[in-house]
Task: structure prediction
Amino acid sequence: MHDEGYTDEDSWQSTAAPLSKDAESLLSGMSMNSVQECEELAYRLLASLPRSRLATIQRRLAPLLQFDVVGSLPTEVSLQIFSHLSAEALLACALVCRRWQTLANDQSLWKNLCLSRGWQWRQPRRTRAFDTSKGSEAWQDSDDEGMGDSDEEADEDEVADSLMSDVETARVESSVMHSEQDSGFASMSFGGNALPFEVSTNGKSESVYPRAGESSSAKSRIPFRHSAPPVLNALGPSLFLKADYKLLHQTHVRLHNRVLSPSYRLSALQTRGAPANSHTNTIYCLQLYTYPSTGVQVLFTGSRDKTVREWNLSTGLVERVIGEVHSSSVLSICVYNGLLASAGSDRRVVVWDLEKNELVKVISDHEDSVLCVRFDDERLVSCSKDRYVRTYSFPDLEPEFRLGAHRAAVNAVSISQTLIVSGSGDRSVRLWDTKTGSLLRTFENHHTRGIASIDSKLPYVLSGSSDKHLRLFDITTLQGWSTSPDVSLEGNAPATNTPLTTSFPLQNGQVGTHVCRSCGSTNVQPAATSSHAETRCMHGDLVRSVALGDNFVMSGSYDLTIKVWDRKTGALVADLSGGHTGRIFCIGFDCTKIVSCGEDQRICIWDFSHGIDTSFIQL
Result:
């Protein structure tokens, strides 16, 4: 029986002899300068060999065929090639060989990737988790001074002004946004001496504050930390670490995936009456702020108790109280470049120098409650129930423009270097030129009811309304999404502009056939269009606060929830609940957490960085 898989040496020698004569005749009759002739000779030689010998030759030729072009280049050239790759591609390249692993892990590549996303490395600081021991009580307050009237109410006021008495007029003005008032909601009372601490992972909340009858040893095991401890707790504060931009990039990706999960830990920075020097009434506004000189992040909050307070996020304690500058509720704050501006129902805008801890200026030009204040390097902008937007120049804060076109209270304003964006109870969004004060464009009926909140990162503008919906759109193309896709964009935009749409391309470039009527996303499964999904994918009450991030959009509502949306598609990413027992008035965020405050006097921290060292992330 012949075995084709094996040939002994004798048989090989017998078949090789004739081939040598053929090879000699080929070599004698061909020009060695011809590559094609050499290739033909090699092929004929290989074709005449048995399979076992072909395998041996293949192994010998493999190193020649697997020549590493990139790895053989100078390091500078190889890194230049790798600099065009994404983070995912670099991770894949690191698995090829040791040379590629060294190149793919080069810090310069990861630094460029981080800087392109605005991710900065900072030296880790030693931190200590906050721990307080004061309880809270049920709250009774249900007023909302931070919202102006809508155009329906404003028009009624104008028509009836000559017919109503002074007393009746005052009664109408005091019932601001009466249709949005919450008729009642459950109160939550925490007894005992421990601060409530709630943990929520994958959307499920679990209370871990001490229960009645627990021993002191059980209480001592409660984890009050709301952020991951630094890796180097035992090291001295003067130790500096070499920047690891690959670690920085991967940590940001982990945090991003935590939001998508969602996986978070919920804790309360303040409950009613705790800590001892906390706010004593409704908290209307907040803002996270990092001091440039120290890199320390703090939280500022403004309240109906007429004060602004600065919170140490490491200890959970109030470090500064700015009081006796407002005679009524603080409705809005803005902190930037060492200055703090606060606006209140006393018609004042107050500017405070944080470094010097002294008053800079008090502005009293508005004729009614100042509902929002924002500023940058060049100017300060405020808006009011008096239906006007006012601007002031830095550094002297002298008046610039009095912008009047809205028909109802201007509830929110946002500022950039070239544009001012204002949203009003008259359902419109207006764009103003910062240099001249001229009205550039009006988007009428941008929502079906009054606009309660605005945020912008040009060319994108995000708005929230008392119609319970959000809208994000590009002011240059009018493309975007809305949680109420049935609403069309109207206004004085040129007729050539494409109308606002809620259709978005999927990953393969095709437009999806299924549209979620509540979140406006086409990247959904058919089941997502059910009535249950529609209920989940929208707010159930007025959207009081919105925040526009690089990847996500966040919104806080009177329905006691915070929702996170995909910025590109408008799809609902996370639905955060269980933190507040009263209407949510304001939210803020960074890459590690969301903070919120509201009517129940609680300040909640929704921490997505639990268990992750984030001490080197620039917040």
Remarks:
- The first helix runs from residue 9 to 28.
- The mean pLDDT is 77.
